[in-house]
Specification:
The complex is a heterodimer. By secondary structure, chain A is of the alpha/beta class. Chain A is built from 29 helices and eleven strands. In chain A, the strands form two sheets. In chain A, strands 7-6-5-8-9-11-10 form a seven-stranded mixed β-sheet, with helices on both faces. Chain A has a four-stranded antiparallel β-sheet with strand order 1-2-3-4, sandwiched between helices. In chain A, helix 2 crosses helix 6, helix 5 packs antiparallel against helix 28 and helix 25 runs antiparallel to helix 29. The longest helix of chain A has 34 residues. Chain B contains 13 helices and 19 strands. The chains are: A alpha/beta, B alpha/beta. Chains A and B meet through strand 3, strand 4, helix 17, helix 19 and helix 20 of A and helix 1, helix 2, strand 8, helix 4 and helix 5 of B.
Chain lengths: 773, 393
C-alpha cells in the first residue's frame, strides 16, 4: 500500500484536537531535529570519553550516527508499502525516545570500561561496533520518524507533495538549528549531561502527548495521553530536581572503574574529570589522561631544560598545560613575569580546587597572569615579547593541537621572542628508536622549526625537547654551564640535578637522533597541510596492528581515488542515459545526493578547520559557524521547494546546485589563501562560506525528490534520498577529517572536492532523461 | 645467507603534490574510471628476503614438509615454509630457521646500569645498551613497542637500523671505556644468537654482559647462555597465569622456572615487579610475590617495585600512586626481603640500599644517581662489615 493510502480517516482534522494533523507532524519533526542534534552532541561527548578519543574517534562516531539514521530512514521508507505510517507509529517512536535518550547516556558511559583491559585504547573496529550498539536505538527511531513524517504529511494530498516533504526537511533542519543554538549558547555552560538528557526525554514525552490527540479511537487516545503525561511529569521532576545530579555522578563513575571520581564536568571544550587513587589525583580531558598530581619528572624536565638555557630569563610565556606543575618549576628561576595562556577557563575552575598546594600555589603568585584564550590567537594579537616561550599543549594528536607545531605557529612564536630568546616544545619519544610515522612527524616538526629559528637543539629523554633560538650560538650543550646556572639559581628539584643534565646531554643519544632525523625528508608541517597530525593518526592506528602492512596514503593516491570515483560517476551517468529506465534514474539521483552529502559535510569541515587555523579554536565562533551552516541548509531546502513545479525545472535546479558546489569548492582555495593575510575578516568570510555550503546542500534535496518521485511515492523517495544524503555526509566526515585534509592539505582538498562535484554534476544530468521504460 | 641491507638506505619522503601532478593523476584515474588510486594507498613493505639480514638460528628442529619447530622459548612455534615465529624475527626459509636481527641494532644507547635496573651490580657503571626488533610477548604497556612489536624489515625500511655485528658492538664498548653491554629494550631472548655471540666475545675482552629479560626462555638455551652473562634482570609482570594471558599473551610458570634456574646457577639476579594500579597491586598478590621471591632466592635477592607509566595501549591508566608503591615495599620488607626498591618515583629513602646488619644506608641513591657509597671493594658494609649481596668490584 503506498504511503498516500494511509488511513485518511485517522488524519482528518478534528476540532477537538488543539493542532491540525499537519501542524502535529511539523511539531514532531521539529522536535526530532532538535532531539537529534542534542542527542548526537551528548552521546559523542560521552563516547569520546569512553574511547579516550581523538578526531578519528569523532569521525567514526559521526559516521555511525549518520549511517544508522540513514538506515532507520531507508528501512522505514522501504517498508511504507507494508507498514504504513500511522499516528500510532509516530506516537510510539516519541514515547520510545523519551525512554531511550537517558538510557543511551548510561550505556555510553559504561561501554569502554566493560569491553577492555583497564585504561586500554580501543581499536577502531571495536569502536565502530560499540558506538553502533550504543547509538542504534535512538538513531533508528529518529531516522524512521523522518520517513513516517514524510508519509503522514503527504497522505491524502494530490498536489505539491514534494513541497510538503521539503517542509519536513526544512523543519528538521530548523529543529537542529535551535538545538545547536540552545546547546552552544546556554546548555553547554549551564546544565550537566544527564539533566539535559532527562529534559530532552521529557520534551519527547510532551510531543507524544500532542501526537496522542490525533488517535482516532477515544480509548486509545486516553491511554496514550495518560502514559505520555505521566512519563513527561516523571522526567521533568527527575531532570529538574536533584536526582539528575545524583544520576550524573553515579553514571559518570562508570568511565573510571576502580577509581574515586572526584568530579566530572563538561566544559565548552570537552569533558574534564578528576579521579583519586590513594594520594594521587589524575586529570583527564575527554577521557585522555592529562597529568597526575605526582608527575614530577615531566614538568621539571620541560621547565628546567629550557630555562637553564637562558642566561637571565625574566619574562616567560607558557602556552597550555600550566596546571601540571610547569609554572611552579619556571618560578624557581625567579622570572619577573610569567604569562600562562589557557584556552579552557572552566577546566581551570573545575580542576584547581582539587590540586595539591605544589600545583595550586604557583597560580596565586603575583608574577603569574592567567590569560584565557587560544594561545595562538593571543600570540597573534599581543605586542609583548618574552625571553622564553614554552609550548606545553601536548602531542599533535588532533587537528586543533597540530596548529601549535606548524611553521606558521613557530614563526609567530619566534616573532615574540626577545634577543636572546628561546622557544621550547616537546614531542613524545620512546627513548630507544625512531621509525615509521613517528620518525616522519619528528622530522616534519624539526623542519618547521628550522624555518623560523637560527638554532634548533633536540634533546632526547622522556620526550624529545626541541629548544630553538632566534639567534645563533644561544643554545648550549655544555654541562658545566647549565650546572652552574642550576647552582647559582639555587634550584631544588626531585630529578633535575647535575647528574641528570649529564645523562640528557650525553652526546651519543643526541648524535644518533640527529643522524636519524637528518637522513629522512618529511614535508614541513603547515597550517594548511597538517601533515604531523596525519603521522600521529598513522602512529595511533599502528598501535592496534604493529606488524600490519603500512597504510600510507599520499596526495597522489587520494587524488587518484577521487578521480576514480568521479570517473565512475560519469560511467554510471552514461549507463543511466543509455538505459533510460526509471530505476537507473532514481539510483543515479540517489548517488547525486550522496555526493552532495559528501561535499556539504566535507566543506563544513574545511570551513571549521580553516577558521581554527586562522582565528583559533574558539568555542562560540565555531558554534556560530555550525549554526550558519544549518541555517543555510534550511534556507536551501525552503528555496528548493519553490522550484519544484515540474520535473524539468527540478532537474535544472539539481544541476545548478552541483554547478554551485563545483564553483564554490574551486573558489575556496583562493578565499583561504586570501584570508591567510586578512585574518581579521576570517569570521565574516568563513561564516558566509558556511552558510553558502549549507544553502547549496539544502537546495538539492527538494528537486531530487521531485525527479525521483512517481506515482505518488514521494514519501518513499524522500526517505531514500534523505538516507543517501546522510550516508554521503557520513563518508565525507570520516574521510575528509582523518585522511584527505591531513594528507593532501586544505587547499588541495577543496580542489579534489571540485573534481568530485564534477562527477556529481554528471550524475545529476540523468534528471533530464525523461523517456522512461 | 643474503647480504645485509644497506643501512644508509632511507625512507622515501612524502612529495607535495603540485597542481600539475594533481591534474595529471586525476586525469589518469578518471580515464580509468576505477578505484585504481586506492590500491596505491597500501604501502609496500619489503619482504623479509629483500630487507633483513639472515643468520641461521640455534635451537630448532626440522619437521616433515619443510616445516621447522623453534625451541628457543616456551611458545615452541611450528613454522611452515616462509612462516614467522610469534616473536616476529625468526623465519623458516627453505626448511631452515633463520634469525633476521643478527647484528642489526634497532636501538643503541648508553645508560646507567641502575636504569636496567640493577642496583647491586657494579653500581654507578655505564652500560652500552642494545636492542633489535621482536618479542615473544605483547605487553599492553610496552614502552618499546615500536621495537618489540614490529617486524625487522619494518624497522629496516622506516627507521635507522645500525649494522652492529658482535665484533663492532664489543669494539664500540671497549673504545668508549664502557664496562658493560646490556641486552635490553626488546626481549633479548628473541635475538638470542646475536646476544650469545656478543657475550662470548665481550667476555674475552673483559666486558661484562647483562640481560634485561621477561624470563620466557627454554632450559637448554638459557643454560648455554648463562655462563657468559654476569647479571640477569627478570621482569615478573604479574603473579597469576590469568594475568599473564590477558596482559602479555604469555605464561607465568616458565618465567618462575627461569628465575629458579638463574638462582641455582649462582648468577647475580634482580627481579622487577611492575605495579599496575587496580590491576596487579592488591596486598595479597604483593605478599605472595614477596614470599615466593624469598623462598626461591633467599632474603638477599633484590626486588624492585616499578611504577607503571602509561604507554602503548594502556595510555589512559594513571601512573601508580606513590602510596601504593611504598605499601608494596613495606609488605616485601615485612616478608623478610633485605633489598626492596621502588622505581620511577623520587625519594632517596626508597631507592637506597640499607645494610641488613646495621640498618645504615650503604648506597644512597636519588633515582639512578649515587649520592653516597659506603660499600667496600669486597662488598662489605663500611659501617659494620656485613657482606652486602651483589657484585661490587
Amino acid at each position: 500500500m503506498p504511503a498516500s493510502s494511509v488511513d485518511d480517516k485517522s488524519l482528518a482534522y478534528s476540532p477537538e484536537t488543539a493542532l491540525s494533523p499537519r501542524r502535529t507532524v511539523e511539531l514532531a519533526i521539529f522536535a526530532a531535529g532538535l532531539t537529534a542534534l542534542l542527542l548526537q552532541v551528548l552521546l559523542t561527548r560521552e563516547l569520546l570519553v569512553s574511547f579516550f578519543g581523538n578526531e578519528l574517534c569523532i569521525g567514526l562516531i559521526l559516521m555511525d550516527w549518520l549511517l544508522l539514521v540513514a538506515l532507520g530512514t531507508a528501512l522505514a521508507g522501504r517498508l511504507l508499502s507494508r507498514l504504513p505510517a500511522t499516528w500510532g507509529l509516530l506516537l510510539g517512536s516519541e514515547l520510545a525516545l523519551a525512554v531511550i535518550v537517558p538510557l543511551q547516556i548510561y550505556w555510553a558511559r559504561g561501554v569502554g570500561g566493560r569491553a577492555i583491559f583497564p585504561g586500554e585504547l580501543i581499536d577502531p573496529l571495536t569502536m565502530i561496533l560499540l558506538a553502533a550498539v550504543v547509538l542504534a536505538p535512538g538513531c533508528l527511531v529518529l531516522g524512521a520518524q523522518f520517513a513516517w513524517s514524510c508519509a503522514l504529511i503527504t497522505a491524502g494530498k494530490s498536489s505539491r507533495r514534494t513541497a510538503s516533504i521539503a517542509v519536513i526537511y526544512v523543519l528538521e533542519a530548523v529543529g537542529s538549528i535551535i538545538g545547536g543554538l540552545l546547546f552552544h549558547f546556554w546548555l553547554a555552560d549551564n546544565l550537566q549531561t544527564m539533566r539535559i538528557a532527562l529534559l530532552l526525554a521529557a520534551l519527547n514525552a510532551l510531543v507524544a502527548l500532542v501526537v496522542s490527540r490525533q488517535l482516532a479511537r477515544p480509548r486509545h487516545r486516553r491511554a496514550a495521553q495518560v502514559t505520555a503525561g505521566l512519563l513527561a511529569v516523571a522526567l521533568i521532576v527527575m531532570g529538574g530536581g536533584s536526582a539528575a545530579v545524583r544520576f550524573e555522578m553515579l553514571t559518570s563513575a562508570r568511565h573510571w572503574p576502580g577509581y574515586e571520581l572526584v568530579t566530572s564536568q563538561h566544559t565548552r571544550y570537552g569533558n574534564v574529570a578528576v579521579t583519586r587513587l590513594h594520594d594521587q589525583l589524575s586529570v583527564f580531558h575527554d577521557g585522555l589522561l592529562m597529568f597526575t598530581s605526582q608527575d614530577y619528572l615531566a614538568s621539571e624536565e620541560l621547565a628546567h631544560l629550557v630555562m637553564l638555557q637562558h642566561p637571565d630569563p625574566r619574562s616567560v610565556l607558557i602556552m597550555g598545560g600550566g596546571l601540571s606543575g610547569v609554572i611552579g618549576e619556571v618560578l624557581k628561576h625567579n622570572p619577573q613575569r610569567v604569562d600562562y595562556v589557557e584556552l579552557d577557563r572552566q577546566a581551570v575552575q573545575i580542576i584547581r580546587p582539587h590540586l595539591p598546594p605544589r600545583l595550586e600555589q604557583p597560580l596565586r603568585d603575583p608574577r603569574v597572569t592567567v590569560i584565557y584564550t587560544d594561545a595562538l590567537a593571543y600570540l597573534h594579537r599581543t605586542q609583548t615579547h618574552y625571553d622564553v616561550i614554552i609550548s606545553n599543549v601536548g602531542d599533535p594528536v588532533t587537528a586543533v593541537l597540530n596548529r601549535f607545531y606548524t611553521r606558521q605557529a613557530f614563526a609567530e612564536a619566534a616573532a615574540h621572542l626577545n634577543s636572546p630568546g628561546i622557544f621550547c616544545a616537546g614531542l613524545s619519544y620512546p627513548q630507544t628508536h625512531l621509525s615509521g610515522p613517528r620518525r616522519m612527524l619528528h622530522a616534519s616538526v624539526l623542519g618547521a622549526l628550522q624555518q623560523s629559528f637560527a638554532q634548533v637543539l633536540p634533546l632526547p629523554d622522556g620526550r624529545i625537547y626541541y629548544l630553538a633560538a632566534t639567534g645563533p650560538q644561544v643554545l648550549t650543550t655544555d654541562e658545566a654551564t647549565l650546572a652552574e646556572r642550576l647552582a647559582q639559581r639555587k634550584i631544588e628539584t626531585a630529578y633535575i640535578t647535575r647528574y641528570f643534565l649529564h645523562t640528557v646531554l650525553v652526546p651519543f643519544a643526541r648524535e644518533l637522533l640527529a643522524d636519524s632525523l637528518s637522513r629522512v625528508s618529511a614535508p614541513v608541517n603547515d597550517d594548511f597541510r597538517p601533515i604531523t597530525y596525519h603521522y600521529f593518526l598513522q602512529l595511533w592506528l599502528r598501535q592496534f596492528a604493529p606488524t600490519a602492512r603500512e597504510i600510507a596514503p599520499r596526495p597522489g593516491h587520494i587524488a587518484g581515488a577521487v578521480g576514480g570515483v568521479a570517473g565512475l560517476c560519469v560511467l554510471i551517468a552514461l549507463l543511466a542515459w543509455r538505459r533510460r529506465s526509471r530505476r537507473s534514474r532514481r539510483r543515479a539521483i540517489a548517488l547525486t545526493l550522496a555526493i552532495t552529502g559528501i561535499l556539504e559535510m566535507s566543506m563544513q569541515l574545511v570551513v571549521i578547520f580553516s577558521f581554527q587555523v586562522i582565528a583559533g579554536s574558539l568555542f562560540y565562533q565555531i558554534g556560530i559557524l555550525m549554526t550558519l551552516f544549518m541555517v543555510g541548509l534550511a534556507a536551501g531546502g525552503h528555496l528548493g521547494r519553490y522550484a519544484t513545479g515540474s520535473r524539468r525545472s527540478s532537474a535544472v535546479l539539481l544541476a545548478a546546485t552541483l554547478v554551485g558546489l563545483l564553483a564554490a569548492t574551486a573558489l575556496m582555495p583562493v578565499i583561504l589563501t586570501w584570508l591567510a593575510t586578512h585574518r581579521a575578516l576570517a569570521a565574516v568570510v568563513l561564516g558566509t562560506c558556511a552558510a553558502v555550503f549549507g544553502l547549496l546542500g539544502g537546495l538539492g534535496y527538494p528537486p531530487a525528490v521531485e525527479v525521483c518521485a512517481a506515482g505518488g511515492d514521494e514519501a518513499r523517495a524522500g526517505a531514500v534520498l534523505y538516507a543517501s544524503d546522510l550516508a554521503g555526509a557520513a563518508l565525507g566526515a570520516l574521510l575528509v577529517s582523518t585522511l584527505v585534509i591531513p594528507a593532501a592539505g586544505l587547499l588541495q582538498t577543496c580542489l579534489l572536492l571540485s573534481v568530485l562535484s564534477l562527477g556529481g554534476l554528471a550524475l545529476s544530468s540523468v534528471a533530464f532523461c525523461t523517456s522512461d521504460t | 645467507m643474503s647480504e645485509p641491507p644497506d643501512v644508509t638506505r632511507e625512507t622515501t619522503d612524502e612529495p607535495t603534490l603540485s597542481r600539475r601532478d594533481l591534474l595529471k593523476t586525476l586525469a589518469l584515474a578518471g580515464a580509468g574510471a576505477g578505484l585504481g588510486g586506492l590500491s596505491g594507498c597500501i604501502g609496500r613493505n619489503p619482504s623479509a628476503e629483500a630487507a633483513a639480514a639472515y643468520h641461521e638460528a640455534k635451537y630448532y628442529s626440522k619437521l616433515a614438509g619443510g616445516r621447522v619447530q623453534c625451541h628457543l622459548c616456551p611458545n615452541q612455534c611450528t613454522l611452515g615454509p616462509g612462516g614467522r615465529g610469534v616473536c616476529g624475527n625468526r623465519v623458516n626459509r627453505d626448511g631452515k630457521l633463520y634469525t633476521l636481527v643478527y647484528g642489526r641494532a634497532g636501538a643503541l644507547n648508553v645508560d646507567p646500569v641502575e636504569k636496567k635496573p640493577l642496583f647491586h651490580f657494579k653500581p654507578g657503571s655505564w652500560a652500552l645498551s642494545v636492542g633489535t626488533a621482536g618479542c615473544a610477548f605483547s605487553c599492553k604497556n610496552c614502552q618499546n613497542w615500536e621495537l618489540s612489536q614490529r617486524l625487522p624489515e619494518q624497522l629496516e625500511q622506516s627507521g635507522r637500523v645500525l649494522d652492529m655485528p658482535p665484533s663492532k658492538l664489543v669494539a664500540a664498548a671497549k673504545s668508549r671505556g664502557i664496562p658493560i653491554i646490556a641486552y635490553t629494550y626488546n626481549e633479548p631472548v628473541s635475538f638470542y644468537e646475536y646476544m650469545l655471540d656478543t657475550a662470548k666475545l665481550a667476555r674475552r675482552h673483559g666486558i661484562k654482559s647483562v640481560i634485561v629479560s621477561n624470563g620466557f626462555v627454554n632450559r637448554e638455551p638459557m643454560l648455554e647462555l648463562l655462563p657468559y652473562l654476569d647479571a640477569v634482570k627478570i621482569d615478573l609482570k604479574g603473579f597469576s597465569e590469568a594475568f599473564y594471558t590477558s596482559y602479555c599473551a604469555g605464561r607465568l610458570a616458565p618465567v618462575l622456572e627461569t628465575i629458579k634456574r638463574v638462582i641455582a646457577l649462582g648468577k647475580w639476579l634482580e627481579i622487577v615487579y611492575l605495579v599496575i594500579p587496580t590491576v596487579n597491586d592488591d596486598a595479597q598478590t604483593i605478599r605472595a610475590v614477596a614470599n615466593w621471591v624469598k623462598r626461591a632466592g633467599g632474603p638477599d635477592l633484590p626486588l624492585h617495585f616499578s611504577r607503571f607509566m602509561p604507554a602503548f595501549r594502556l595510555k589512559n591508566l594513571p601512573p601508580t600512586p606513590e602510596a601504593t608503591l611504598r605499601q608494596c615495599r613495606k609488605i616485601a620488607l615485612a616478608a623478610g626481603l633485605n633489598y626492596v626498591y621502588v622505581g620511577n618515583i623520587p625519594g632517596w629513602d626508597i631507592a637506597s640500599t640499607y645494610c641488613p646488619g646495621c640498618g645504615k644506608v650503604v648506597i644512597k641513591r636519588n633515582g639512578f644517581e649515587i649520592l653516597a657509597y659506603n660499600v667496600k671493594a669486597n662488598g662489605a658494609c663500611k659501617f659494620c662489615g656485613r657482606q652486602i649481596a651483589g657484585i661490587f668490584s
